[in-house]
Specification:
- By secondary structure, the protein is of the alpha+beta class.
- The chain folds into two domains: 98 residues, Winged helix-like DNA-binding domain superfamily/Winged helix DNA-binding domain (Arc Repressor Mutant, subunit A); 202 residues, D-Maltodextrin-Binding Protein, domain 2.
- The chain contains ten helices and eleven strands.
- Strands 7, 8, 9, 10 and 11 form a five-stranded antiparallel β-sheet that branches.
- The protein starts with a strand and ends in a 12-residue tail after the last helix.
- 27% of the residues are buried.
- InterPro entries: LysR_HTH_N (IPR000847), LysR_subst-bd (IPR005119), WH-like_DNA-bd_sf (IPR036388), WH_DNA-bd_sf (IPR036390).
- It comes from Faecalibacterium prausnitzii M21/2.
- Belongs to the LysR transcriptional regulatory family.
Length: 317
């Protein structure tokens, strides 16, 4: 049985003695305390006598008619209630950590994500929960929140402007990204320090259905706005990967929110000044949050909070 030690090293009160003491202190009746602990009155009496002897404390005033706490007993009771409460909390916390360490976590990852920082987040999480299984899966741009609601994802990354607030989902801002025009290094605009939408007149911007709806949701330039300034939007590809190939070939440009220092092989990025930066958020379901989900989000917050430049994402689309 677990016990405490006096500073001299001899054994003192046990947890069971404390449970008996608290029960008697709250019931002020040895029979009621015994019933509460599913034991007998003599067993309770024995534990209280042993506790008083081992601690040297006179805890109760006892007569044939009533039981009451002494002043020392009252002080001891208040402290022991707090201590046992801390003990239960410590046990619950340890159990949660053990359960989380054996758990399964599914994280959605957007295309052209900041893989370096994400890898460091994942590494720290796995260090904290070495036995947890983490699956990283593609995040769907067409229905970004549905994967969370359906349970396909435990955690996802979103732009603040691509969704409406949902009381069932918790969103935590991480950083912001500005819009850039992606183009071939040989483009006549590749040497510009910054661009306005009107500067794209006569250029071709590749589009796809999923990407266009996503870009519009992020309050980026719509196809109508591009057409109004004379941009050719006739080039279409079913995926953003296809768009990257066209950009690298020099047959089209694209517009995405991304990090100014991002490096995409064979592509130059030029800031687009007409649209405000968008905030990137990490999100999870709000109800019954799991410890491992909360821990992953906290690690992500810490990683981005320590970056001198908040725009630490290569691209999130």
């Amino acid at each position: 049985m677990t016990s405490f030690l006096h500073k001299e090293g001899r054994r003192s009160m046990t947890i069971y003695q404390l449970e008996c003491f608290i029960a008697v202190a709250e019931e002020l009746n040895f029979s009621a305390a015994a019933e509460r602990l599913f034991t007998t009155q003599p067993a309770i009496t024995y534990q209280i006598n042993a506790l008083e002897k081992e601690t040297g404390l006179h805890l109760f005033e006892r007569t044939t008619r009533r039981t009451k706490l002494t002043a020392a007993g009252q002080s001891f009771y208040l402290d022991m209630v707090q201590m046992t409460s801390f003990g239960r909390q410590a046990l619950k916390k340890a159990q949660d950590i053990q359960d989380a360490d054996r758990s399964h976590l599914t994280v959605g990852l957007r295309q052209l994500f900041d893989y370096s920082t994400f890898s460091s987040i994942l590494a720290q999480f796995q260090h904290q929960f070495p036995n947890a299984c983490v699956d990283v899966v593609p995040q769907d741009n067409r229905r970004p929140l549905e994967q969370l609601r359906s349970g396909q994802l435990d955690i996802g990354f979103f732009y603040a402007t691509e969704h409406s607030r949902d009381r069932d989902i918790s969103f935590t801002p991480l950083f912001s990204l500005g819009y850039h025009v992606l183009m071939n290094p040989n483009s006549p605009l590749a040497d510009r320090r910054a661009l306005h939408l009107a500067d794209l007149k006569g250029q071709s911007v590749v589009s796809s259905g999923a990407f266009d709806s996503f870009l519009s949701a992020c309050q980026g330039p719509s196809l109508e706005q591009l057409a109004q300034v004379g941009v050719d939007c006739s080039k279409i590809t079913p995926s953003f990967e296809g768009a990257l190939i066209m950009i690298q070939m020099g047959t089209a440009m694209s517009i995405v929110p991304c990090l100014s220092t991002a490096v995409i092989p064979g592509i130059v990025k030029v800031p687009l000044l007409d649209f405000p930066p968008v905030t990137v958020e990490i999100a999870a379901m709000r109800h019954a949050p799991r410890l491992e989900v909360q821990s992953f989000i906290e690690i992500a917050k810490q990683k981005y909070a320590h970056h001198p430049d908040p725009l630490r994402m290569e691209a999130l689309i």
